[in-house]
Specification:
The complex is a heterodimer. Chain A is of the alpha+beta class. Chain A is 44% helix and 13% strand. Chain A has a 4-stranded antiparallel β-sheet, with helices on one face. Chain B has a single domain, classed as Formate dehydrogenase/DMSO reductase fold. In chain B, 47% of the residues are buried. Classes of the chains: A alpha+beta, B mainly alpha. At the A-B interface, helix 1, strand 2, helix 2, helix 3 and helix 4 of A face helix 2, helix 6, helix 8 and helix 16 of B.
Chain lengths: 178, 460
Amino acid sequence: MKTTPIYGIMAEFDSATALVEAARKTHDAGYRKIDAYSPFPVEELAEAIGFHTNRVALVTLIGAIIGGLSGYLMQYWMNAVNYPVIVGGKPPHSWPAFIPITFEMTILFGGISAVLGMLALNGLPMPYHPVFNVPRFAMATKDRFFLIVFSTDPKYSPATTRAFLESLQPRSISEVPS
Amino acid sequence: MADRMEQVEVEGGGAPVIEPGHTFGTVTDKISSIVLTRPTSIGWFVGFGVAFLVTMMLLFALGYLFAKGVGIWGINIPIGWGFAIVNFVWWIGIGHAGTLISAILLLLRQSWRNSINRFAEAMTLFAVACAGIFPLVHTGRPWLAYWLFPYPNTMIYWPQFRSPLVWDVFAVSTYFTISLLFWFIGLIPDLATLRDRSDNRWAQMIYGILAMGWRGSARHWHRYESAYLLLAGLATPLVLSVHTVVSFDFAIGIISGWHTTIFPPYFVAGAIYSGFAMVLMLAIPIRKLYGLEDFITERHLQNSAKVMLATGWIVAYGYGIEAFMGWYSGDRYDAFTLWNRLHGPYAFLYLLLLTCNIGVPQVLWIRKLRTNPVALFLISLVILVGMWLERFVIVVISLHRDFLTSSWGMYYPTRWDWMTFIGTIGMFLAAMFLFVRILPMISIFEMRTLLPEAEVKVAE
């Protein structure tokens, strides 16, 4: 019986290259519930930890389509159905004049969806997270690179996982209390 | 490691984007220390104090306007638009360079933008905020400005969507919202850096709340990069559409000098022209005062100068086409508008405009002046004056003598016009002063990606 539950084991690396290599080896060793942390986006890292599905673009597309449709239909309903006024000799449904606002609404809804979608899929805002319990993790937003194996991974065992991470020659290893 | 730095230098054909010798740590410390540890200088307090006082003058002018109405301004029939619209178009245009730098140059993989995009985006936000004041107070009853938006109301009445003025409401409010999102999204990883670097409990809490628990996870970065690129892709057509719609405010009208199809591209080019001038006017003192010459190098100054030279020629082409069409259209009113610009009572402003926007900037062909900060600062000032005059010429000269001689008139701005205009410059500067003091003015995480050690070299 463990007294303090452990969230995972974290290894610290000096460079992006070392982290990507370590992440690949960990993934190849069969660990699936892992994550990597870097102070700037590293293109190869998501692939190295086996993360492929990214639905941000889909959410943005759906948002943009909803924005465009609602923009156009709003103008149609207001100016051609609910309150038809003849202006400049144009018919009530003068569609070319409705294009600019349709366009702006497409962009507005698409942009908001991209941002909110990204935050929601990332589970942010999340003020508390167990990784912040590791004092050295504050360096993750400066110049250090971290790899974690979560204790929920089926292959996880405190002794062997730690030994495995040590074989990757990290700068330091810490247990993350949850 | 050396390859990447060499490559960066070769691409630039001269000065590098970052001076050599920096690491992740030094880049982080240098930019975050301006906010966290560096003592606030006397100069900052003086500068902010002056800008704040000028902002108070703006509030005074607006307070008097709310009490008395737009009659305190110089506007009257036939010139109903005056300073309010001149300043609106000028400020919106200045904002456009920020979006160009942050979105369009990102899509074009111009990585030199990484050290100027953050404060250029802040410039966009503050410029659009200044711009937004003018049409609002120009409505005469700004407390009813919400009438511009379609909302269910007891008058059973809707906006008239065939009017470019309503398009403008949507374009400008979308532009402000997307610019704010883009800026904030870019700030999140840097706010996390400030949260982790700060020793002050309050600063840790405030930056921590704003960073929303960002921890730099690979999954997060992956989605973050998609969202950032998508926003850039959305902001690119948006920025072109905003000044296009602003130009429709004029081009849809039948007034000579407004009713032309050249307006959208010519307005967009003019916007970027004046925006880059403002970027340089901010970047040159900032890099000097905060010792950021390592990050905002000669290369950035050169590139901005080249963009001004290019957009300046597009603007010159616009002037040329306007003059050509005045003659070629055979329309007597268009011909008169051209004659009136060159020989009418405001002719000196038109000639000053040509000097500021076409004449003086040609010295940028000289490499020595392109790399001289003082010269660039002065040329940028001349361009900003010139672009303001351009909007004055478009608004006032076209309106003051239209089709009927009986309805001709003159426009003279009053002291309230000037106080409002100068007041918004104060508000803009006050906001910039606060921004450089409390937020990282250069994007720290994007600067890290420019370093040679950021490249991953893994044997496949």
